[in-house]
Amino acid sequence: MNYRRLKPCVVLTVIGLISACATPYQPVPLSTPVPVAAEGHALKTDNVVIVLDASSSMAEGYGPYKKFDIATATVRDLIQTIPANMGINSALRSFGHDPTFSAASTVSLSKMSDFDRTALEQALLTVTKSGGPSPLCAALETVTDDLNGLDGHHALIIVSDGKDMDVGPIMAATALAEKFKDNLCIYPIMVGNDPNGNAQMNKLAQIGGCGVSLNADALANGQQMADYVSNIFIGHALDSDRDGVADAQDQCLGTPAGTTVDATGCPLDSDGDGVPDAQDQCLGTPAGTTVDATGCPLDSDGDGVPDALDNCPGTIAGVEVDASGCPLTVLRPDATTWTFNEISFDVGKANITPNSYPFLDEIAAALGARPQLTVIVEGHTDNTGSRATNMDLSQRRAQAVVDYLVGKGVSPSRVSAKGFGPDRPIADNATRLGRSKNRRVQFTKVE
Predict the structure, then answer these.
(1) More confident residue, 381 or 12
(2) Which residue from 72, 211, 260, 302 could staple onto 185, CB 3.0 to 4.6 Å apart?
């Protein structure tokens, strides 16, 4: 049937009276609202119009309850479940009415505005009694005014028993669908079990093309209503950086486009060295290895041997080293000074630490191989403490090295001690690394 060629909305007048004998209907039980998991999700529906049937057929009973009470309870549960603070716009209107409430076919109980749960509940409470004909068509015609000028996607929720209606509502809904096209979904909620009413509600849902008709019985508890609201309003999980991990689970929001990420949304670091694979120039670094900003094993002295394998950290730039990071020749013949940070002492003392013995033994052997070489053993400190203390300490440390070498067979005439304290720094004493370089033993060739 082509509804567009029919006459506009025609209201059927209900002939007959509701039985004068009042039925003791029970109050509809209150349901406990269940929160909708909306955080981190896109908004699927921006604007909603809720239409409540307040016509005379809603005064009929359905089980132990009055249909109008079921309808208002359903709308109340809906209002309590729709998530607030998401930018949803809402309007509430009714149709039918007992003459003591309104003679109008449809009434705007709450005009389209930002969703306000309290205001909507108060507006709903103003309709306390049903009566009159069922001009759903008139209500649907005014929905156009409710939605005009609004951007986004619209939902039309109709709570009714579908009774005492002709093709008018179908015509009005068809006109709405043509106007708003894919931006409108119709969601009828059927109250009662009237076959013709149920058929009417199903037709309305089909016109929108994206809605569904449900019976109010299927929305009687909080979880059912939460699932219903989620289906209408809550869209896909937000993924603002488009890395495939939803924002709610993404521990690294803002990952650059094209970056491969792990399950937490953070840049993939397959070797676990703290440098993402995209920047890692040394993939597959063994676990526990200290790496630099490129993901390669840290080589703080730049001698080509990673710190983890370097037995002689702090080697002077340009000095050729072996696989252990130590100078190939301890006293290179092409040099006139040799600096050794490898020779260490107890803190604040001149006692040589045992780990320095192998290195000193190598120096003693080198001196033995060059019997014509005479050197001054210089002691140097950083600037921590007083100068007088450091001068004394550097002298005693230099002498301790001389004594050790003499003890290893070096002639006392070839080695002498001289302490310079903090006076000849080779690095910045303001940094920890600089101070460690300044604390050194230096050999100078005597010409």
Answers:
(1) 381
(2) 211
